Amino acid sequence: RPAVQRQLSQARLAQLAEALKQYRADHQTWPDTTAQLLRSAKLPQTSTLVRGAGLYRYRKPAVDAPADT
Q: Does the predicted TM-score (pTM) go above 0.70?
């Protein structure tokens, strides 16, 4: 159901955003890979999946990207 998928996607994205924020606070840099982020946050590899909605991918921002990217 689309409404359920949207709800799950929003929750999953919030979880990943919090993991990125914590990673940046701990390491003062961006993670190189999704796996590195998930290991640091102690999240399962399936944290980037939402059934029926797809797979979230992470791409490291440019070196000169603003801190709030």
A: yes
